[in-house]
Amino acid sequence: MVAAVGHKLQMRIEWGWPPEPEWFDHAIDLYYQWHQTRNPLWLERGCYSLLALRDRGKALELCCGDGFNACHSSKASQLVAVDFNSQAIRHAQQVNWAPNVEFRVCDIRKEMPEGDFDNIIWDAAIEHFTPAEISTVMQRIKQRLGSCGILSGYTIVEKPEWGKQLSHHEYEFKSKDDLSRFLEPYFKNVKVFETIYASRHNLYFYASDGVLPFDSAWKSQLVSNQP
Questions:
Q1: Who contacts 32 (Cβ-Cβ below 8 Å, separation ≥6)?
Q2: Higher pLDDT, 222 or 216
Q3: Radius of gyration of the chain (CA)
Q4: How far apart are CA 44 and CA 22, in angstroms?
Q5: What is the pLDDT of residue 224?
Q6: How confident is the model at residue 45 (pLDDT cuts 50, 70, 90)?
Q7: Which of the listed CATH numbers 3.40.50.620, 3.40.50.300, 3.40.50.720, 3.40.50.150 matches domain 48-221?
């Protein structure tokens, strides 16, 4: 009860009036909003990307925010998680650290960790970039994914009657097809699916030159080539 009251107050202070913060503390979901709404959105995001992770593989998470979804690291041998906001990274290091997770301050519009990755996760952040920036980031993602590596992530569908759903959003997607057109120039296989709630229309995506989750051949791809 005390945690719920404290996080309710935190939500009102941080999100009650503009400008909105650049990152969200998911403890608010855990201790307050989950009990109020029973909306599983905040859990969906981590779980759908977790399905795509290669067992004991190497993963890169872009725009990790508070690091809550470092739960991906439970399956990976190594997770590098980056965000341009140094305050978010400090919070992540203090609250959501794990032995196989490295949090770094990094603006992916200008740079991205080097290396070869089995998985790259771009969760709840692609909408914070302009179409031109998305194309630049996609090129860098493609350079860092192995031949069967998978990009996964989440975004929202715009609500024209609302205007931008957050002031930080640069481009909100209009449909599954609208999101797919940003992925298809870079990957042979693209899968976009949706969940719809009264408050939000969600898009999830997988993209790879190899097989994707839910494909018939997917099970044989789950074991990593990493030692």
A1: 3, 4, 7, 8, 10, 11
A2: 216
A3: 17
A4: 21
A5: 47
A6: confident
A7: 3.40.50.150
